[in-house]
């Protein structure tokens, strides 16, 4: 491939000469540019950008990598990774905690039974993330830039869930002491706080059913009324998937609220075939 | 949408209907099989390879400043952290034995005996934290810039799997020092599997008995012990990194096929 | 997709089945015949056997991962004489993860694994309760849960006095919450 600056032509044209085979290659791979058969002209501006990609984008990622190597080195020199005493299967330590990215789930364990907090909720979360591109009705707009105004519902729904995940992590990491008891940051976490167990109540079974029916009913109806276009743009199936996912997400703060304010242990406690299903 | 489908549906079979859906297009659409028009055998082979591997610089009219303010290098740094973890991890493997009687002592050796062992161990641990954090931030940035929309849906799904694998890698690594924190953290984590509906021994409607449920695939017994350590070690050092590497390759390949990062063009 | 079928060829390879055919052959006649294997049929057969093989192999891999034997301490063990346990005491047998509890009425054994997420609760002598350090689950001395997240009482294991006069604990045999092994005092 020969690249030459033709002086006779206008300054901002570059002629790239190439063989037929090279042309076939270039034509095919450079999808974004508009080469013409045989010859192609690029303005210096465009040419600049082509170079800039390598220099700037990859270069900047490289610099960022170097920067973080440095940060990690310094961090590793000054702070040692934790190592407690040898594992002892017959003695559970008081301040047991999961790795920080799972502390959100550990936090949920306080409010939900393990099969919900540890299995069902994370699975729904994953399924929700996977179907997300398909239930977003807005296929074109808001791509390639940070935009809230173009898709306010999508952004706020996602950010709500994302923020909840991290808020739970922060609470679990910094506000919990021995026995997963709530500690304010100024309280000494080495002192074991004795909290008298609160007298917890369950909703009556009818009340529990009523709660869930009303709640899901409201979640289905209310968005339709508030956001007039939502139902139309989503279509029936996607609307119900979206609304159900949102409702399940909302149930988490609601349960936490009920637990702290009304000492509710379970909203709905069922007994089916010897199995307790507690929600 | 339903009505339109019905109208289109007349005279079409299920396969053609399926081909019209977004899910089908996301997986088998233009990005995977489109644009391939063989020219001459050798040329098409060369082009095919070059194209599949994306072995060429591509035009992207994005200034450096805008790249920083757009991707914040989050994806790139995740790759970088993964590479760093692979290196430090390989070095750690030299002195580490996945044996309940040795593991803890080996890890202590990194601090007191192995020259610069503590540095390697610290780097491995802190980089792992950073990677989990950056991958999740990367997901946030992809969402906020709408980069999961067609034609990038499949890449988003691959990304979600990568996020899960990253967390699992970190979690399996958590057990390896075999200290109190690790032991009980993993005991709790694995008991969650035991509580899975139907498939766990303690969950609702349990079908399988204790020691034979999904949980014991991970634990290899009734309680966390030597089989668990070995399984976690193999997952942590072989299976998950291989999976992540493969999916990452696919991730980048899809980015290039989509014409590069969605961005302020 | 009606494949043309060479009748002569068919006759040579399947003499019995083609015996029913006489006269000139119309394309497609044999398609309905029970012994005719069309290409489509072959294709689906191949697919089916492929997926059958894949699913069988996946099943065997999953089964392979679940161990048949675990090399852990036996779940049936002897735990000293009943007289060794003082009245009102709660003794943890660490290697087996079992509490032996001696009460007025007799002896019972509780498995020292929290019914919530398998941590090991601690016996608090002063409060006379078991408390789990992980999420604050609490149990009475008889194993009944009364606070925190645990959904069920602690599991009570079967105990009996074996021939040599020592206690025999069987962790695999779960007994009712009111099971107590009577012990003569004095
Ligand atoms: C191991 C984890 C991951 C690595 C190493 C990784 C790496 C990358 C890189 C280097 C890019 C190029 C753009 C950028 O730097 O932002 C990218 C883009 C992308 N990633 Fe990831 N990623 C990971 C996880 C994820 C996750 C968790 C998601 C979402 C759930 C995701 C979805 C995407 C999508 C949709 C793009 C295209 C973005 C665009 O075109 O603007 N990735 N990834
Ligand atoms: S494991 Fe005992 S309360 Fe959670």
Please describe what this structure looks like.
The complex is a heterotrimer of chains A (279), B (265) and C (186). With 279 residues, chain A is mainly α. Chain A has helices at residues 20-29, 44-78, 103-111, 114-135, 152-174, 205-226, 228-234, 236-262, and strands spanning 2-4, 14-17, 41-42, 269-272, 275-278. In chain A, strand 4 (269-272) and strand 5 form a beta hairpin. In chain B, helix 7 packs antiparallel against helix 9 (117-144) and helix 8 packs across helix 9 (117-144). Chain B starts with a helix and ends in an 8-residue tail after the last helix. Chain C has 186 residues and is of the alpha+beta class. In chain C, 18% of the residues lie in helices and 25% in strands. Chain C is built from 2 helices and 11 strands. Chain C has helices at residues 7-13, 39-65, and strands spanning 76-78, 90-93, 98-102, 106-111, 122-124, 129-131, 138-139, 145-147, 156-161, 167-175, 181-182. In chain C, strands 1, 2, 3, 4, 9, 10 and 11 form a 7-stranded antiparallel sheet that branches. The model of chain C has no long low-confidence stretch (mean pLDDT 81). At the A-B interface, helix 1, helix 2, helix 4, helix 5 and strand 5 of A face helix 3, helix 5, helix 6, helix 7 and helix 8 of B. Bound molecules: protoporphyrin IX containing FE and FE2/S2 (inorganic) cluster.
């Amino acid at each position: 491939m020969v690249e030459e600056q033709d002086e006779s032509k206008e300054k901002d044209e570059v002629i790239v000469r190439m063989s037929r085979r090279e042309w076939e290659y270039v034509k095919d791979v450079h999808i974004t540019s508009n080469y013409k058969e045989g010859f192609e002209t690029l303005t210096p501006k465009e040419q600049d950008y082509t170079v800039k990609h390598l220099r700037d984008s990859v270069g900047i990622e490289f610099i960022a990598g170097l920067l973080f190597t440095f940060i990690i080195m310094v961090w590793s020199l000054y702070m040692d990774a934790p190592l407690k005493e040898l594992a002892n299967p017959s003695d559970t330590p008081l301040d047991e905690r999961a790795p920080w990215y799972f502390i959100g789930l550990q936090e949920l364990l306080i409010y939900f039974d393990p099969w919900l907090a540890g299995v069902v909720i994370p699975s729904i979360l994953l399924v929700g993330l996977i179907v997300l591109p398909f239930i977003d009705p807005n296929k074109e707009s808001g791509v390639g830039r940070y935009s809230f105004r173009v898709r306010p519902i999508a952004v706020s729904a996602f950010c709500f869930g994302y923020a909840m995940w991290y808020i739970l992590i922060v609470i679990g990491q910094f506000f919990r002491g021995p026995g997963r008891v709530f500690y304010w940051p100024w309280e000494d976490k080495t002192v074991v706080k004795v909290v008298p167990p609160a007298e917890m109540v369950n909703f009556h079974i009818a009340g529990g059913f009523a709660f869930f029916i009303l709640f899901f009913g409201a979640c289905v109806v209310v968005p339709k009324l508030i956001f007039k276009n939502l139902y139309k743009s989503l279509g029936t199936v996607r609307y119900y998937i979206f609304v159900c996912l949102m409702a399940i997400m909302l149930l988490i703060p609601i349960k936490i609220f009920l637990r702290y304010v009304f000492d509710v242990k379970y909203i709905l406690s069922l007994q089916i075939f010897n199995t307790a299903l507690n929600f | 949408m339903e009505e339109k489908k019905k109208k289109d549906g007349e005279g079409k079979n299920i396969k053609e209907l399926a081909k019209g859906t977004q899910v089908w297009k996301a997986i088998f659409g233009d990005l995977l099989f489109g644009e391939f028009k063989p020219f001459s055998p050798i040329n098409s082979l060369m082009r095919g390879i070059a194209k599949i591997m994306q072995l060429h610089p591509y035009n992207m009219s994005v200034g450096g400043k805008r790249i920083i303010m757009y991707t914040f290098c989050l994806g790139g740094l995740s790759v970088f952290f993964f590479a760093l973890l692979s290196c430090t991890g390989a070095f750690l493997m030299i002195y580490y034995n996945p044996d309940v009687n040795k593991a803890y002592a080996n890890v202590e050796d990194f601090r007191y005996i192995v020259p610069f062992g503590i540095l390697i161990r610290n780097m491995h641990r802190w980089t792992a934290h950073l990677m989990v954090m950056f991958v999740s931030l990367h997901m946030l940035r992809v969402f906020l810039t709408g980069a999961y929309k067609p034609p990038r849906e499949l890449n988003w799904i691959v990304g979600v799997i990568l996020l899960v694998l990253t967390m699992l890698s970190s979690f399996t690594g958590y057990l390896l020092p075999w200290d109190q924190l690790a032991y009980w953290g993993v005991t709790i984590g694995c008991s969650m599997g035991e509580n899975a509906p139907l498939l766990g021994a303690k969950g609702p409607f349990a079908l399988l008995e204790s020691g034979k449920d999904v949980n014991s695939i991970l634990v290899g017994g009734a309680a966390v012990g030597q089989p668990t350590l070995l399984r976690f070690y193999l997952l942590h050092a072989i299976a998950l990194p291989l999976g992540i590497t493969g999916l990452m390759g696919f991730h980048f390949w899809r980015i290039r096929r989509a014409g590069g990062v969605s961005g302020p063009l | 997709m009606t494949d043309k079928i060479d009748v002569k060829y068919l006759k040579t390879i399947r003499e019995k089945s083609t015996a029913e055919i006489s006269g000139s052959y119309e394309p497609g006649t044999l398609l309905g015949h029970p012994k005719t294997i069309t290409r489509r049929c072959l294709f689906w057969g191949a697919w089916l056997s492929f997926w059958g093989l894949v699913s069988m192999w996946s099943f065997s891999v999953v089964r392979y991962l679940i161990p048949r034997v675990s090399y852990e301490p036996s779940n049936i063990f002897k735990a000293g004489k009943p007289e060794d346990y003082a009245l009102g005491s709660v003794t943890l047998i660490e290697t087996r993860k079992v509490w032996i509890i001696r009460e007025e009425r007799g002896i019972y054994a509780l498995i020292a694994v929290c019914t919530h997420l398998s941590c090991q609760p601690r016996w608090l002598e002063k409060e006379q309760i078991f408390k789990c350090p992980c999420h604050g689950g609490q149990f009475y001395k008889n194993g009944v849960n009364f606070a925190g997240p645990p959904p069920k009482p602690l599991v009570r294991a079967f105990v009996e006095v074996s021939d040599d006069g020592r206690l025999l604990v069987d962790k695999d045999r779960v007994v009712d919450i009111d099971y107590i092994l009577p012990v003569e005092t004095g």
